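Appendix B, record 7
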Amino acid sequence: QVQLVESGGGLVQAGGSLRLSCAVSGGTFSRYSMAWFRQAPGKEREFVAAISWRGGATYSGDSVLGRFTISRDNAKNTVYLQMNSLKPEDTAVYFCNVRGTPRWGQGTQVTVSS
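Structure tokens (predicted):
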């Protein structure tokens, strides 16, 4: 059974940075395309970024383009989300996902203060 565990969330001031990690176990990580989503209170879950199984292709949502970077380390079965120039509107619970499947982590809270 595939399990995803996110970490790295926290409280940061606007303009700051955080790096989220998502450790994947129980499957063949190197074969999965991975994605990050986020959900703010009262809002629908929003696509943030995705990365192909080898890491050669990445995609970002319009709201984070140029500020967030997704990457992966297949030797560590981990996908990352580097978040720079954070804004209060980035406050949300961030989830990682095996792209195109119903496999999700439990989420990690990111709070950006103004």
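Remarks on this record: The two ends are 40 Å apart (CA to CA). DSSP finds no helices and ten strands in the chain.
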